[in-house]
Automatic annotation (TrEMBL):
Keywords from the UniProt entry: Glycoprotein, Glycosidase, Hydrolase
InterPro entries, per the entry: Acyl_CoA_acyltransferase (IPR016181), GH (IPR017853), Glyco_hydro_3_C_sf (IPR036881), Glyco_hydro_3_N (IPR001764), Glyco_hydro_3_N_sf (IPR036962), GNAT_dom (IPR000182), NagZ_Beta-hexosaminidase (IPR050226)
Gene Ontology BP terms: carbohydrate metabolic process; peptidoglycan turnover
Coiled-coil regions listed: none
GO MF annotations in UniProt: acyltransferase activity, transferring groups other than amino-acyl groups; hydrolase activity, hydrolyzing O-glycosyl compounds
One Pfam family this sequence matches: Glyco_hydro_3
Domain Glycoside hydrolase family 3 N-terminal: 16-339
PANTHER family: BETA-HEXOSAMINIDASE-RELATED (PTHR30480), PUTATIVE (AFU_ORTHOLOGUE AFUA_8G04060)-RELATED (PTHR30480:SF8)
Species, as recorded: Knufia fluminis
Name this polypeptide is given: Uncharacterized protein
Length: 927
């Protein structure tokens, strides 16, 4: 195929169809099955699993033989050689001599080092390309939204959407830099599965498509933006309102509408293995193949039996011949696969891989990288009584008891190879039963080397015993009596409940142990989870709790390093202690879109009405605010508003208003509103982050402000209620705002203006002899008024005055002019609930009585008698509004604390007050 995607003469229809399949085979050398697939059916992608790979030399030769077979049988381009190599316990290619063992995805995430994640992915890819492998099925992008009961386990980066997204992107970049193609899995997520019916039935996603788009799909979106090459659509059902999908990889709604159209994915879509029992039983291989291809899959996976593979090929061929599949559709998928091959394959690469020499060259650096990664990943969740390292609490001559469960060895381990158990089921095993599986190995077998390493590290005796679902037996109690300390290992106790019960029982016996004189002396007990970190994460009775995220030999060596450090080491346990991320602490990354008035106006009005809950003092800020409240539409201010929305129901979940004052180069957040039912789900965080990113894009921004004069919905952090103020201050502080109370602004009110009378003599006391006052309204006064306002006020106040001047019937301005030259030195606005300004000051427009407002006082900087002049202006304003029959009055935005006593003496009471917060753009810019 040439660069523009035209098919050359050597690509006949049969060869094109062969490129649409990825297939596996049994055996460690070329056999009749794979020979037929490559030569007769022209299959262009070969999946190699642990059953095919014994060692690096054998794997390298097998790949070379496969590529040679492809070339001699007339393949115009090399094969894609595909492998599962996720690290941790899922490695199809394992060789202690040449292949480096790295932590699982969750273990890498536990280091908190995204740079390390990229380095590990690059190192893994370089080792694979040395063997001629050019495609890895990874990274896993599933978010464990139900972390405690999901089979995907430590293969995921975790339960935090942001962590999975960022580490997933780094893996994509690292793999690609190392020379292998990438494939995200398992779309649309295996992070929250329900298991109904028989164990062989497909698991079900019960989340709605909208919930998935706001949580589980976020890492896939980030990976697409980062240029991931392919996406594997899983073999799961989806069942929720408006969504009923039997198999995701057979669904046009999932493959084409969601992944291809809505998420804009342009790469190769790979189906889950079409030989899965539930699919083949209910639909059949042939029918499933046609359905998957019509749904939008480009590459169809069948990885086991020759009969099923031939049925799949014949089914696709029949679909093409009978018109069910259009030839243009074949060209579409064929072109995507050819583009992938052109990027990662060539005959030169296929026949000249870097080989063993390159693996020997990188071995030392990769081993060092692995050790560093594992040491950084092992997590101390709790060490309440400072038992770590154990050499602090027991002597070399004391006996240490190690208790380990009966578990199957991980595929990426020497014990696994020794067991002779080699299979490919590394993707999704919904209901493993480690306690009863006939292939379960003894605890002594899997953890034997761990006990030896521990004994060698402490230079003392380690008693090692396994435990089962039978619980604590007399032999355990006898060993516990002899031991001075105990280490209990759990491996996925969430699904093997006996392990958690056993560990808690042992911990209790340690607390109740007695010395030789019969006194209670608590015996040090350490519990280490070597698979899922949530085994006993919340069990406070386990005082010392560690996590290693897998139990490969390298992971267990890192665990030994932490448990029993050399006494000469300068390190201590606290230096490696990390906080385990809990599901309740996860921050979701919501999809934030630009507000569109034509689309979102009605939904925003509904959201604002719902947010006026009387249970929260801050909710009163949006009282009677509407969608129009936030639309200034003035050339002095650039406005950009954002929403989190349910695209199906059109409901708005959250709203954020931002404004940029051009003259002052100040960016402001004018409101953040979240639906009451969606609070504490990171909606506000996502809106805030998007708003800050938008404001940071403004060139030359000098400062950020939390709150605005206009619209007057959220002037700042409300402090009328101490508890609410503390909560909001802490929230904004965590987001990066420099919280202080240097600028406090107040809103004052006179609730009954009809009975109000000015104190005797107040007018004379406030008179400033060289100032003359007048009342004006209408645009004929715009020139002189706006000159004064532009010199002395910010853009949002200028917009207020422009609105007032354009609204002659509803607004007026009191001016204070210097008698000597007639120049304006002070001004204040008057307005009524029917004025143009009222919608931007919801407290005015929402009042049940005829309400007026005084606000936006502007004073010349050079004035010396500002307080008296301000109070005089306001007094004149109150008298004017009372004369007009106004019944109640709001004095808005008073930031002159020296004026407050006089205003209270005038009859005003504090209505509410706020902290106006400013921060620098540098507070959010990263190096």
């Amino acid at each position: 195929m040439n660069a523009n995607g035209n098919v050359s003469a050597q690509w006949d229809e049969a060869r094109q169809l062969g490129q649409l399949f990825m297939m596996g085979f049994d055996g460690t050398a070329v056999n009749d099955q794979i020979k037929t697939l490559i030569t007769t059916y022209h299959v262009g992608s070969i999946l190699l699993t642990a059953k095919n790979l014994e060692s690096v030399p054998q794997a390298t030769q097998l790949v070379l033989d496969l590529q040679t077979l492809a070339e001699t049988s007339g393949h115009p381009v090399p094969l894609l050689i595909v492998i599962d190599q996720e690290n941790g316990g899922v490695n199809s290619l394992y060789d202690e001599t040449y292949i480096t063992q790295f932590p699982s995805a969750m273990g890498v995430a536990a280091t908190g080092d995204k740079r390390l994640a990229r380095q590990i992915a690059r190192a893994t890819a370089e080792e694979l390309t040395s063997c001629g492998i050019n495609w890895v099925l990874g990274p896993v992008l599933d978010v464990l939204t139900n972390a405690r009961n999901q089979p995907i386990g430590v293969r995921s980066f975790g339960e935090d959407v942001g962590v999975v997204s960022s580490f997933g992107v780094e893996n994509v970049k690292g793999f690609q830099e190392g020379g292998v193609a990438t494939c995200g899995k398992h779309f649309p997520s295996y992070g929250n599965l329900e298991f109904f019916g028989a164990p062989t039935d497909v698991p079900t996603i019960t989340d709605s498509l909208e919930n998935l788009s706001q949580n589980a799909l976020v890492p896939f979106s980030h990976a697409i933006a980062a240029g991931i090459d392919a996406m594997m659509v899983g073999g799961v059902a989806l069942s929720s309102n408006h969504l009923n999908v039997m198999h995701a990889c057979l669904s046009e709604q999932i493959c084409r509408d969601l992944l291809r159209t809505e998420m804009k994915f342009q790469g190769v879509i790979v189906s889950e293995c079409l030989e899965m029992e539930a699919l083949s039983r209910n639909i059949g291989i042939s029918g499933g193949t046609v359905m998957a291809f019509k749904a939008g899959c480009d590459l169809l996976l069948t990885c086991r039996s020759m009969s099923a593979q031939e049925e799949a090929i014949n089914g696709l061929t029949a679909g093409l011949e009978n018109g069910m599949i259009e030839r243009s559709r074949v060209q579409e998928s064929f072109s995507r696969i050819m583009a992938l091959k052109s990027k990662y394959t060539s005959w030169t690469k296929a026949f000249s891989p870097p080989g063993l020499d390159n693996l020997n060259r990188v071995r030392a650096s990769n081993t060092k990288l692995s050790a560093s990664a594992y040491d950084s990943s092992v997590t101390v969740v709790r060490d309440q009584k400072q038992y770590l390292p154990l050499n602090k609490v027991i002597l070399p001559e004391d006996e240490l008891l190690l208790l380990t469960p009966l578990v199957k060895p991980l595929p990426a381990s020497a014990a696994f190879r020794q067991s002779g158990e080699v299979s490919r089921d590394q993707s999704l095993s919904p209901r493993p039963n480690y306690a009863t599986d006939i292939m379960v190995m003894t605890g002594e077998r899997v953890f034997r080397n761990f006990g030896r390493l521990l004994a060698r590290s402490r230079n003392g005796r380690v008693m090692h015993a396994s435990y089962t679902a039978n619980g604590v037996r007399p032999q355990h109690e006898a060993l516990l009596e002899r031991a001075k300390a105990v280490v209990v290992i759990t491996a996925d106790a969430g699904r093997n409940k006996y392990q958690a019960a056993f560990a808690k029982h042992i911990a209790m016996l340690c607390r109740l142990s007695e010395d030789s004189e019969g006194s209670l002396v608590e015996k040090p007990c350490v519990v280490a989870a070597v698979s899922s970190p949530w085994d006993l994460a919340t069990e406070k009775s386990i005082g010392t709790y560690l996590c290693s995220y897998d139990f490969t030999e390298t992971a267990l060596q890192a665990l030994v390093n932490l448990l029993y450090k050399d006494q000469k080491s300068s390190s201590n346990a606290s230096e490696t202690t990390k906080r385990l991320r809990r599901p309740s602490q996860a921050r979701q990354q919501w999809l934030v879109e630009h507000y569109r008035d034509d689309r979102d106006r009605s939904a925003l009005n509904t959201l604002l009405a719902a947010a006026q809950a009387p249970s929260r003092p801050s909710s009163a800020l949006v009282k009677s605010a509407t969608a129009d409240t936030f639309q200034l539409r003035d050339e002095l201010v650039e406005e950009a508003h954002f929403v989190v929305r349910n695209s199906s129901t059109k409901e708005l979940i959250g709203f954020c208003a931002t404004y940029y004052q051009k003259a002052e180069k100040t960016g402001s957040i004018g409101a953040i509103v979240v639906s009451p039912g969606r609070r504490h789900q990171s909606v506000g965080h996502s809106l805030h982050d998007r708003a800050i990113r938008a404001l940071l894009q403004k060139q030359g921004t000098s400062k950020f402000r939390l709150g605005t004069h206009l619209p007057n919905v959220f002037p700042g952090i409300p402090n009328i209620d101490a508890a609410e103020h503390k909560k909001l201050s802490q929230w904004f502080s965590r987001l990066g705002w420099k919280i202080s109370r240097d600028t406090t602004i107040s809103r004052l009110a006179i609730s009954d203006l009809s009975s109000w009378e000015a104190p005797d003599g107040l007018g004379q006391s406030l008179a400033v002899t060289d100032i003359r006052y007048d009342l004006v309204h209408g645009q004929e006064f715009e020139g002189s008024v706006m000159q004064h306002v532009q010199r002395n006020a910010q853009s949002d106040v200028q917009v207020l005055y422009k609105m007032a001047l354009s609204n002659k019937e509803g607004c007026a301005i009191i001016r204070g002019k210097r008698g000597s030259d007639g120049s304006i030195v002070a001004s204040v606005l008057l307005y009524r609930s029917q004025s143009k300004l009222a919608p931007f000051v919801p407290h005015i427009s929402s009042a049940n009585t005829l309400t007026g407002g005084i606000g936006a006082a502007v004073m010349a900087a050079e004035l010396e008698n500002k307080v008296s002049l301000l109070q005089g202006l306001i007094l004149l304003g109150v008298r004017q509004l009372k004369k007009q029959g106004i019944q109640s009055l709001l004095l808005d935005y008073m930031d002159q604390p020296l004026a407050l006593p006089g205003l209270k003496n005038m009859g005003f009471a504090v209505h509410d007050s706020f902290d106006e917060i400013y921060s620098s753009p540098e507070d959010w810019k990263t190096p």
